[in-house]
Design goal:
With 369 residues, the protein is mainly beta. It is 12% helix and 33% strand. It is built from six helices and 24 strands. Strands 1, 3, 4, 5, 6, 9, 11 and 14 form an eight-stranded mixed sheet that branches. Helix 2 crosses helix 3. The chain is globular.
Length: 369
């Protein structure tokens, strides 16, 4: 018998569960969710896969569900929280409450929604011709490692009535709270399209961009969408691990590096490409499309329920490193302080794609020869 197993230490209950479920696992730095291979998963009832990308951290994972034409998932219920993003197809989700009451809503490409904690739910593909492809970011790793009891997580009858939210929240209505740049929120359970929702100003992150944070199903999960105008790029920044970044509109690339690195890791992205920056890894996003680029970030530690002290200090303004220059002890690189190699790299991409740079009022450097 394996000595480590006999001694019962170093156990990862979540990964043990993944193995028992015979889930198809994909790893790597980034992945195009449209091209993800899936296979039948008995629990979900549809071809599925789980993504364990390099920078995911300890709390979160991502699932991909490939719902065939006219098909549906099996009814699900679990004690991990889940944010769902629709990549392709049209369909609906039905949520059933313990008293028999049902809530349902229809979704399409770039819709975002949350499943209230431990509510029974089921996804339906409305098309008889093509697949519906959805992905979700969850805190399943944290919950299964915390309780290390599969039955408790999946067969728990407790009803979190405070998580369901108002009926209007499932119709896309919500409450807008303007707090400050980077902390403005929309409380709801469902967003019809991340491509068209209006975004408040977030120029603090650079180049006239926008940003909106979502409070979904009174969850501890975080989600926000950010926009970069065409011909611009954002300031480099870093934060804790565990945020899956997904392009939802436009195209571009990101450079990632740790403090002291001499070279960058580059990720090119378009709709469907998912990547999580690693813990305190600098990352900087650049547009290469004629239209504005938008991306979604999903992870653990919401604005309402930060969970960690580091996140709580940031939200309450006790520690604003996320928007403070590294010269002042923060986690953001101002344009004037960035590596001089950065801007020429982006200008070369603009030229290659026949696009007009629009960064002159933010950064002044010579054009590449």
């Amino acid at each position: 018998m394996d000595q480590q197993k006999a001694a019962r230490y170093g156990i990862d209950s979540y990964l043990d569960w993944v193995e028992r479920e015979k889930l198809l696992v994909h790893t790597g730095l980034a992945i195009d969710c449209f091209k993800v291979e899936t296979r039948d998963w008995a629990r979900a009832g549809v071809p599925s896969a789980v993504l364990h990308l390099d920078g995911r951290g300890d709390f979160c994972n991502a699932f991909v569900f490939n719902i065939p034409a006219g098909g549906s998932t099996e009814p699900q219920r679990h004690l991990y929280e889940e944010i769902v993003y629709v990549l392709e197809g049209d369909g609906s989700t039905q949520i059933e409450l313990p008293n028999g009451e049902k809530r349902s809503f229809e979704w399409g490409p770039t819709s975002l929604f949350a499943i209230p904690l431990n509510a029974t739910y089921r996804h339906f593909n409305a098309s008889g011709l093509g697949r519906a492809l959805i992905t979700s970011t969850t805190n399943a790793p944290m919950m299964l490692n915390l309780f290390h009891n599969e039955r408790f997580v999946f067969d728990n009858p407790f009803f979190f009535d405070d998580r369901v939210g108002q009926q209007e929240y499932f119709a896309g209505e919500g409450v807008l709270n303007i707090v400050r740049q980077g902390n403005n929120t929309w409380e709801t359970n469902f967003i019809a399209s991340l491509e068209t929702i209006d975004l408040p100003d977030f120029s603090d992150r650079g180049a006239g961009g926008g940003n909106l944070i979502f409070l979904l199903a009174d969850s501890s999960m975080h989600a926000h969408v950010s926009e970069m105008p065409a011909g611009t790029y954002k300031k480099a920044h870093r934060h804790v691990a565990g945020y899956n970044v997904m392009c939802v509109a436009g195209s571009g690339f990101s450079l990632m590096w740790f403090e002291g690195d001499q070279e960058y890791v580059r990720i090119d992205w378009h709709h469907g490409v998912l990547f999580p920056p690693a813990h305190h890894q600098f990352h900087q996003h650049f547009t290469t499309s004629k239209a504005a680029a938008r991306y979604l970030a999903m992870g653990f530690g919401s604005l309402r329920y930060p969970f960690t002290q580091e996140r709580r200090d940031e939200i309450l303004g006790k520690d604003v490193k996320f928007s403070t220059s590294i010269k002042k002890g923060g986690d953001q690189v101002e344009y004037e302080d960035q590596d001089p190699r950065i801007h020429p790299i982006w200008l070369a991409e603009m030229k290659k794609n026949g696009l007009t740079p629009r960064m002159d009022k933010y950064i002044r450097t010579a054009e590449p020869v």
